[in-house]
Amino acid sequence: MPELSARWRLANGGRRLGVFLRGMRCARRRQISCQTRRELRAVVTKEAPKGRGWAEGFDSQIFGKGLRLLFVACSLLCLLGSPSFAQSAREFAREGFAAKDRKQFPLAIQLFSEAIKQGQFTPEQRGFILYGRGVSYDALGLRGLALGDFDAAIALLPDFPNSYVYRALAWTDRREFDKARDDLLQALRLNPTSALIHNNLGSVYERKGEVDRAIESYGEAIRLDPTAAQAFYNRAHAFIAKQDYRAAISDYDRAVDLQRDFADAYSNRGGMYLLLGDTDKAIGDFDEAIRLKGTDPIFWSNRASAYMTMGRYKDALADFDRAQTIDPGNAATYLGRGRARLYSDEIAGAIEDLRVAARLRPTNAFPAIWMHIARIHQGNPDREELERNAARVDRTQWPAQVLDFYLGKLDMDRVRQDAGGGVGAEGERRLCEADFFVGEFLSHGQQKADGRRMLRKVVDRCRPVDIIFAAAQAELRDDKEAR
User: Fold this and answer.
1) Strand order, beta sheet including 15-16
2) What is the Cα 357 distance to its own chain's centre?
3) Pairing status of strand 31-35 against strand 42-47
4) 31 φ, ψ to 5°?
5) With contact defined as beta carbons under 8 Å apart, do 267 and 46 qualify?
6) What helix, strand, coil percent values describe the chain, rounded to 5?
7) Contact indicator for 301, 35 with CB cutoff of 8 Å
8) Is the pLDDT at 77 greater than 60, yes or no?
9) Under a CB-based contact definition with an 8 Å cutoff, are residues 170 and 186 in contact?
10) If both were cysteines, with which of 154, 273, 329, 357 could 367 make a disulfide (CB 3.0 to 4.6 Å apart)?
11) Whether 229 contacts 255, CB under 8 Å
12) What is the pLDDT of residues 311-328, one digit of tens each?
């Protein structure tokens, strides 16, 4: 189960990674955010708005098989300037395109609608106007209305690739990826040398889980336009999905070389360095992302998560405070700050933050687990609170089994067995989490020696990049000091 994610940012425009790879998915861009998508996880990778980052300005270009579309475009311009055409329709259409270019989309929609109502346009001219209105609807998030206009534009103007591209973006937002792919393939038949279309196609393949095809499409976009920072950025995210972190770093290097203010790329690259254990480079990249765009809470949370893995809880707490100030409704920030407070001996504050995280994401097991851990540290394990929180959690998702262990419904061998059911790196990560959560619980009860043994196993076997690694070290340190 995703830890509690901030938002996604990745794709045709800029992605961020989730957890130290996160989820690589959040709002309209995937981003690598140091909060987990899984657990409200560690680093979030951003993915830019699917396609729309690169699509800006795309509608102003006339793509395709040249002469035919150029003739149509010229016909529309001649129409708008023709003294024989009704004055009102001519002006409404002309001003509609001007308003769209100025990003005054509500006004553009009104003007296009009035032009369509009053004008006697040829089918192709009407198709361009419907396309312009569809782009305006899309910019406002009115996908249903946009799809209707793109359908009409394609029917009237079947050789204009832009309509297929924008309709593909609308299908992608609806998670109808096969339809999006088909539209982009048709756009490529009309304009096979468009790097932008190949880039968007790569994004759709990635969303479909066809990572190799995504990498191939991003590579073709790069071949056609070697200066396309977004294509390098997107391909990096696809490499992350294949756990090829060095290749991802190489593409992020190219992205920031081409676009020096690419804050998301710096943040995502920082997440990769963190995964590879190079904390100095990771912190340096998070610093640069914050310098470029200090108003983005994901960057502060990412650096905070990096500090957490290093056991620098006070520094992490300061960064989580900044992230929470910018985005006070982010459950991942409350979870991260709650853990930072827990290991900074601010137990009351930790409990309050974890309570908020559980309230914001009641079906996610991680806030409930960490809330119980905080209560144990406080010396006040609240059984009724644990039962209430556990009752709301999605029981089909890991790590709900840990709550059943806390409630005495599962033994620790079964918890570890369920955790190890994951494949590869995911299974290893879950097993590390199981050992930490069980070991932490035992170390505060009657089986202290068994608990410490499991915590030492976490430190010996698990990745330093995981939050639980530093947490296990903190538990062992606190136990040693207490003795």
Assistant:
1) 15-16, 42-47, 31-35
2) 19
3) antiparallel
4) -145, 155
5) yes
6) 70, 5, 30
7) yes
8) no
9) no
10) 357
11) yes
12) 899 999 999 999 999 999
Q: Using 50, 70 and 90 to split pLDDT, how confident is the model at 481?
A: low
Report d(CA 462, CA 427) in Å as an integer. Answer: 12
Of 111, 409, 334, 265, residue with least CA distance to 273: 265
Q: Do residues 421 and 456 touch, judged by C-beta distance below 8 A?
A: no
Question: Once rounded to an integer, what is the mean pLDDT over residues 32-43?
Answer: 40
Looking at mean pLDDT, say which of 26-40, 64-78, 184-198 comes out highest. 184-198
Is 0.90 surpassed by the pTM of this model? no
Torsion-angle region of 15 (φ positive above 0: left; ψ -120 to 50: alpha; else: beta) = beta
- Report the C-alpha gap between 85 and 422 in whole angstroms: 68
Overall CATH class of domain 330-482: mainly alpha
Give the pLDDT band of residue 2 (cuts 50, 70, 90): low
Q: 254-263 contacts: CB < 8 A, separation 24 or more?
A: 254/229, 255/229, 255/230, 256/229, 258/227, 258/228, 258/229, 258/232, 259/229, 261/292, 262/14, 262/229, 262/233, 263/288, 263/289, 263/292, 263/293, 263/296, 263/299
Q: What is the DSSP letter of 18?
A: B
Q: For the segment 280-299, what is each residue's pLDDT rounded down to a tens digit?
A: 999 999 999 999 999 999 99
Phi-psi region of 141 (alpha: psi -120 to 50; beta: other; left: phi over 0): left
The two three-digit tokens of residue 264, written as one number: 């998301």
pLDDT digits (tens, 9 = 90+) for 138-160: 999 999 999 999 999 999 999 99
- Listed residue (306, 231, 274, 287) closest to 47, CA to CA: 231
Structure tokens that stand for 145 in this block:
């209305």
Residue 420 — very low, low, confident or very high, per pLDDT cuts 50/70/90? confident
Q: What type of residue is 388?
A: R
Comma-separated ranges of CATH 1.25.40.10 domains in the chain? 64-193, 330-482
Q: What is the DSSP string of 36-92?
A: -SSSS-EEEEEE-STTHHHHTTGGGS--SSTHHHHHHHHHHHHHHH-TTS-HHHHHH
CATH code: domain 64-193 is 1.25.40.10
C-alpha to C-alpha distance for 308 and 36, rounded to whole angstroms: 13
Amino acid at 314: K
| Token pair in block for residue 64 | 């395709």
Q: How many CB atoms lie within 10 A of CB 378?
A: 14
| Mean pLDDT on 382-407 | 96
**Spatial separation of the C-alpha atoms in residues 200 and 171, rounded to whole Å:** 12
